[in-house]
What does this fold into?
Amino acid sequence: MFNSSCCNYSADTVSSAVITVSTLGFFILFSVVPFVGARLEEYARVSPEELIRQKLQTYSYRFLVHSFESESIGRFMLVSICYLLALFVCLLNYLINSIYDGYILLIGSLFLVLIATGISLYTIFTALYKAIIKSKDIKDLEGYIAQTKWLHGKKNS
Amino acid sequence: MKLHPFEGVMRVEKMERYIECFVEPISSLLKKGKNFVEMCTTLYPAFYNQEKLQDAIKEGVQKVTKFRILLDRKVDIYTLKKDVSWIFDLQDKYSYTLEIAKASDDIEHWILVDEKYFRIEAKDKQKRVNVLRTLQIENTPYIIAKEYMRQFDIWWNNAEEVSL
It folds into this structure.
């Protein structure tokens, strides 16, 4: 492996470090996401009807809730983004290395980056689909909210 | 009101009737349960001691995997155990399925059956005595169902377990 005489640069060491940090990040993120989810659950302290109404108000809120309310989507998205960033660092690392030591490692890490990009894009688009495309259901849900206004005796039923 | 191809058509029925008129709708609602039933109630003895409802609850407890009754914080458990003793006997017999707890929070009176069939009761008392206003929902979309179930879980987790 390439070792530059000026700074003892080792592509493998840098990549190992990046992967180690990102693996630790994997566990940290899995711990943090439920906390973020719990913060969102504070909204559940209001009535379900009010919560549904709030959810329907903005695209960004809907995106946020859809991203985090489902643990699988929220965690998967954050973790895959974390890995994607880590792999980009690896890619950069091997790009530097390849200048001196061939392209095999560069192609390998590029392949990993493509996979991680695919996973990240898939999860992001899943969340976006839920948040935006499914918003066509809003009118129907508004109909339900109107019924609950009748239930609780509010005027604009 | 179709919200999702797999969710079926949502049907919401408004009901404003005297309490005794709800025996039939609640009985048939409870009988629909296949997976779980979650009830927030006072277990008002004059109402729940009626044979039809007793049968529906007994049938439900034997059919579903979890039947949770969350009692209003205002109820007196000691009196209730005498007045609706049959339900506590049932709990003794089906202790794995039937769970009863007394709420610590101010709860609303709901019946949630299988994420699909919901009965939501008005929060405030109606002007007319013994008249209840409710919404009965069939094929509840998940986006609505989960908010009610989440709220039930919050109340349930804060509640105090009641046993025979």
Remarks:
- Residues 34 and 71 of chain A are 7 Å apart (CA to CA).
- The mean pLDDT of chain A is 66.
